[in-house]
Design brief:
Bound molecules: nicotinamide-adenine-dinucleotide
Strand content: 25-35%
Order of helices and strands: EHHEEEEEEHEHEHEEEEEHEHHEHEHE
Shape: globular
Helix content: 25-40%
CATH architecture of the largest domain: 3-Layer(aba) Sandwich
CATH superfamily of the largest domain: NAD(P)-binding Rossmann-like Domain
Largest sheet: 8 strands, mixed
Number of strands: 18
Oligomer: single chain
Number of domains: 2
CATH topology of the largest domain: Rossmann fold
Length: about 325
């Protein structure tokens, strides 16, 4: 019996999966999540305030992929000063029939990819089919992933970029050409008004995405709402008044939107549905000129989806180093 574990670097992971593969597998996994064929657990954050950091643990399994994942992602704000990445994520992929850790791989690129892929799915079901303009708020790693995902599902011609750091906006705008879009930096969040799609990806502790930033018919994806970490980039009242979907209602109530639910600002009836319901067709996506919002808390089933594709391709193409823990 082969008891080897495949070790995969970031460069190898990047060579083994594309955004379109991630979107395809994500659609299947969210459909299965909707049908109760996944196992998903609340994420755990261990804070290390003395080091201005925390380590997060995310676990899930997907029956059809016969795999489970444990992702360890640390967030240390002082790391860049030491020449270390601010976020360090590692994914362990286990085979569920015997528990063997079949692969351990870099998780930074995959986190961006899988978060971009759910943004793409939300855009596919909720944005206008003829969407041509995207507004990015937060020109960092996830902002790039969102633009990449959206350009896979809509024929985007122009992106407007807003970031508190003008340097970051400019860098993002320069890189946007690789997605075949024209880019413009804007000086305020309101600068993205009238964009067909707005994607927000910031750690902002005060709402930036308000009614002033969106127009009738705009679709918004937000990946930076995390009440446990105090992140609130979208105005709760906008969420209440819009057609809002989440990745999973229980996860949203316990995680991304927990504060709004605890204080009663939001109740179950303010959430239109889930990504799984859109994918399965039990809830309709866009029907007219409504404002739609997808609030992504981020789930480890997304990591199972992309890590499984990476592992299967690595085996097929003989990529990675084999390591035997039992030697
Ligand atoms: N939902 C998910 O699955 C998921 C996954 C990964 C990361 N995230 C979250 O996405 C967010 C972005 O993460 P990242 O890895 O891209 O970080 P990053 O540091 O690479 O980028 C964040 C960007 O936001 C900008 N920013 C900060 N405050 C802002 C504000 N008020 N207005 C405009 N821009 C602002 C920063 O200057 C930076 O350029 C974080 O909140 C992170 O926790 C969510």
């Amino acid at each position: 019996m082969n008891t080897e574990t495949l070790l995969l670097t970031r460069g190898e992971v990047e060579s083994l999966i594309q955004m379109k593969d991630a979107i395809e597998v994500m659609k299947k996994v969210f459909a299965q999540h909707q049908e109760g064929r996944t196992k998903s657990y609340p994420r755990v954050h261990i804070p290390f305030d003395q080091y201005n950091g925390s380590i997060g643990y995310m676990e899930a399994a997907v029956d059809s992929l016969e795999s489970s994942v444990s992702k360890i992602a640390s967030l240390y704000h002082e790391n860049p000063k030491k020449g270390l990445p601010r976020i360090i994520a590692i994914i362990t992929l286990n085979r569920i029939n015997d528990g063997l850790p079949v692969a351990i791989m870099d998780g930074n690129f995959l986190t961006m990819l899988r978060t971009g892929a759910v943004g793409a799915l939300a855009a596919e079901y909720l944005s206008k089919k003829d969407s041509e303009t995207v507004g990015i708020i937060g020109a960092g790693v996830q902002g790039r992933g969102q633009l990449w995902g959206i350009t896979e599902v809509r024929n985007i011609k122009k992106v407007k970029v807003y970031d508190v750091s003008i340097e970051s906006s400019r860098k993002f705008a320069k890189e946007a050409s690789k997605f075949g879009v024209e880019a413009e930096t804007v000086d305020t969040p309101e600068g993205v008004k009238n964009c067909d799609i707005v994607a927000a990806a910031t750690p902002a502790k005060l709402p930036i995405v308000t009614r002033k930033v969106v127009s009738e018919g705009t679709h918004v994806t937000s990946v930076g709402v995390g009440a446990g970490l105090g992140k609130k980039e979208v105005d709760y009242m906008l969420i209440k008044e819009s057609k809002t979907i989440v990745d999973d209602l229980e996860v949203a109530k316990a995680d991304s939107l927990s504060e709004a639910f605890k204080t009663g600002v939001l109740t179950d009836s303010d959430i239109y549905g889930t990504l799984g319901e859109l994918v399965c067709g039990s809830k309709k996506g866009r029907t007219g000129d409504e404002i739609t919002i997808f609030v992504s808390a981020g789930m480890a089933i997304q990591d199972v989806a992309v890590a499984s594709v990476v592992y299967q391709n690595a085996v097929k193409r003989n990529v990675g180093r084999k390591f035997n823990f039992f030697a």
